[in-house]
Amino acid sequence: MPQRDFSKTYQWLALVNVCLGQFITAVDARSVNIALPTLSVYFGTSMDGVQWILLAYQLTIIGLVLSLGRLGDMVGRKKIYNLGFVIFMLGSALCGLAGGMAEIIVFRVLEAVGAAMVLANGRAIASAVFGSEQRGRALGISSMAFHLGYMLGPSLGGFLIDTLGWRWIFFVNLPASLAGAIMAWRVLRETVTTRSKYSIDPPGMITLLLTVASLILGMHEATQSGFTLVSVSLFSLSALFLVGFIFLEQRVAAPLLDLGLFRVRLFTAGIISQFLISLSQTATFFLLPFYLQGILSFTPTQVGLTMIVYSMVVVFIAPIGGSLSDRLGSRLLCTLGCLCTFLSVLSMAWLGVDSTQWSVMIPLLGMGLGWSLFASPNLSAVFGSVSPDRLGAVSGISLTAANTANGVGIAVGSLLFAHWLRYYGVAAKGATNYTEWAKEPAVFMKAFQNSWTIFALFALVAVGTSAVRGKR
């Protein structure tokens, strides 16, 4: 539909609705992360068990987000987007009412289906509603809404856990989701006027999901029992599914992921760097609430207020990084961002049992600065490395790389922490109740420090992959 068909009033109403969807999904993701230590005690499970509350959500996003974006192009974005709000609201309500760990994991999958519908189609709607001269600004505003949700999520989640209980981190989604659904239904117009010829590529979707799921299940088994025949078999199965995925994607007319893009050095270096930095930061943030509550005895509210500084830096500095990349290119800024992330994560390995709140916040500030210097310049370079007719494929690969890194990062964090506990003589099941860690914190502190050192190495590799990307 031509851009002239949309009034300015409609454009901004549509953007408000898209921003609401971006915001609420980000708030949910970050508040649940803060709740993990509380949920581990409430359900009487260890870290490797409670991680599935995050992993179930992340795996669902990985498996569906690309196909749901294509489905929106085929049958109409408004339909899929509006239904996403409803499903997300239903999943949130059921998570809040869950009576056991299995229930909450299943309902998180339902919640993720709704989130994938909203995320896959929201920015596409904003892009279609605004003309080329305003599209960048609109997408920038929607991105800022997402990061504002990331910023609010930890503090809101911590406050709700301390005052009303963990169930309210899910119930708080209900009014915002309902408002988003009603507004989308009454305000949005369909932006798809002709049916796309794309297929949703079910074989590609299934093999990609099985590749990542087998890898994460292998890590889960290794977390519980070490590298046994079962875990090695799962890793091997993941490799086989990856080979199958590559084989299939090279032989379909409209592949889920355009693998031909990886022939471009700048594109490949950008995606690998994004994957490594996202993995490093996700693994760090997975363990951090357990350290703050288990070792430093912080309340959930204190945890949220500590972690919020990362998102505050990103919200205010990231636009500057994007502007600088237009003049300086991506190589210098992205390499500096990766280096800053490496030094910041490595400095967390120096935290101890008596560290202050500021001792934790300073590395988080550095991580936020690193992401601000890296994210926008890297994404701009990745998009600029290909022809305009392949931008949709680039967006899909970038989103998939980020979500896969998030899922793997959570599994890696749990795996390394459990490995170091076993190395120092503590069984993973003995670490179930984090409230007992402060009585004998030395072993747990060593496990945190060693894990963060390894997380930093992922960022160090990203320094190298970013530096060899070539000129603009």
Could you spell the SSE succession in H and E letters?
A: HHHHHHHHHHHHHHHH
Distance between the termini: 33 Å
Rg calculated over all Cα atoms: 21 Å
- Oligomerization category of the chains in this entry: single chain
Strand content: under 5%
Overall geometry comes to: globular
Largest sheet: none
Look at the helices and sheets and give the structural class: mainly alpha
Give a quick rundown of the structure:
By secondary structure, the protein is an all-alpha fold. 79% of the residues lie in helices and 0% in strands.
Summary tags:
mainly alpha; 16 helices; single chain; 79% helix; 472 residues
Walk me through what this model shows.
By secondary structure, the chain is mostly helical. The protein has 16 helices and no strands. It has helices at 8-42, 47-50, 52-75, 77-97, 101-129, 132-163, 168-171, 173-187, 202-225, 229-249, 265-294, 300-328, 331-348, 357-384, 391-423, 441-467. Helix 3 (52-75) packs antiparallel against helix 15. The longest helix is centred in the N-terminal third of the chain and has 35 residues, at 8-42. The radius of gyration is 21 Å and the shape is globular. The two termini are 33 Å apart. The model has no long low-confidence stretch (mean pLDDT 83).
